[in-house]
């Protein structure tokens, strides 16, 4: 068992795709396969189940992953300490929801790549419900999410931006003419929503429940873009972060429905494990994120 094998194992565990892992590691696919096979032989157990074109971690692979993260982190610490250099090399794994991957992080990633071209960045789009676990298990170095302020004892959370959530519909939707939208106005409407457990969905549904309103139909999507497209053709009303619909509102394709209830808002935060070593690379990324995303205070 060597560090190259462990690095390959971690990359494959995150991508669950031999081709993608090979691309990220700059290997040919056969090298990834050979290193995983050698690691499995050394440990005497299978780490991945091969299911046709798909793979998944076995129970042994799940157990190995956090140890792999610890070993690779310690190796990076040792390398930096011995070299006496700033250590702006290596790999940084970032987790984020689809919304933030699409609308907030591209500028951060671009700036970081320009400043630190020797660092390999791995961006892992993940469901909201998985991000805390990925950070806690050490599968990602840092994660970005939109949520109410986080107070988890094992995680460090740093607030960046206030994110507003809007109720939107197509421009020709009947409710687009209303001067105020009451919870009762939505009782017979189709609501287009993100995954269960999403913070702003929970906030909105809490308000409806408090008013005793049960919408006739709720359609659940994993993709923000799918929700937008369905809203544009008039399939229903969507609850979405303002950053995802700015263009469509400016173009007049979507309209903001004037919600009469409590404003729905979240905080964009970056989180990392409190026991995580803040390597020079991670510290540099945190600072780039702050420079690009922290909301300026008004004097």
Automatic annotation (TrEMBL):
Where does the record place the HTH lysR-type domain?
A: 1-58
Superkingdom of the source species: Bacteria
For this UniProt record, the keywords arranged alphabetically read as follows: DNA-binding, Transcription, Transcription regulation
Known Pfam families for this protein?
HTH_1 (PF00126), LysR_substrate (PF03466)
* Entries under SUPFAM superfamilies matching the protein: Periplasmic binding protein-like II (SSF53850), Winged helix' DNA-binding domain (SSF46785)
Q: Which InterPro entries match?
A: LysR_HTH_N, LysR_subst-bd, WH-like_DNA-bd_sf, WH_DNA-bd_sf
Among CDD domains, the record links this protein to: PBP2_LTTR_substrate
Q: PROSITE patterns from the xrefs?
A: HTH_LYSR
Record-stated family: Belongs to the LysR transcriptional regulatory family.
Protein name, entry field: Putative HTH-type transcriptional regulator YwqM
Q: Which organism is it from?
A: Ktedonospora formicarum
């Amino acid at each position: 068992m060597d560090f190259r094998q462990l690095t390959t194992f971690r990359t494959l565990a995150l991508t669950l795709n031999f081709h993608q892992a090979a691309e990220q590691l700059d290997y040919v696919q056969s090298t990834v396969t050979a290193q995983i096979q050698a690691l499995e032989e050394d440990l005497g157990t299978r780490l991945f189940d091969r299911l046709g074109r798909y793979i998944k971690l076995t129970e042994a692979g799940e157990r190995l992953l956090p140890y792999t993260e610890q070993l690779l982190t310690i190796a990076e610490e040792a390398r930096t300490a011995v070299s006496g250099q700033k250590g702006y090399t290596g790999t940084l794994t970032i987790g984020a929801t689809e919304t933030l991957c699409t609308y907030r992080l591209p500028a951060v990633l671009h700036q970081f790549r320009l400043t630190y071209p020797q660092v390999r960045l791995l961006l892992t789009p993940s469901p909201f419900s998985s991000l805390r676990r990925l950070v806690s298990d050490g599968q990602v170095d840092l994660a970005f999410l939109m949520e109410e302020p986080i107070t988890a004892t094992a995680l460090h959370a740093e607030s960046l931006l206030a994110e507003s959530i809007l109720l939107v519909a197509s421009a020709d939707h009947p409710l687009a003419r209303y001067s105020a939208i009451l919870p009762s106005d939505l009782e017979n409407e189709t609501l287009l929503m993100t995954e269960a457990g999403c913070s702003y969905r929970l906030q909105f549904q809490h308000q409806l429940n408090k008013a005793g309103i049960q919408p006739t139909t709720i359609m659940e999507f994993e993709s923000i873009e799918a929700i937008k497209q369905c809203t544009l053709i008039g399939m229903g009303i969507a609850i979405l972060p303002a950053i995802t619909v700015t263009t469509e509102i400016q173009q007049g394709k979507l309209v903001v429905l004037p919600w009469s209830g409590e404003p729905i808002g979240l905080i964009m935060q970056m989180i990392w494990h409190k026991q995580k070593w803040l390597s020079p690379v991670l510290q540099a990324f945190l600072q780039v994120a702050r420079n690009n995303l922290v909301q300026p205070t008004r004097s």
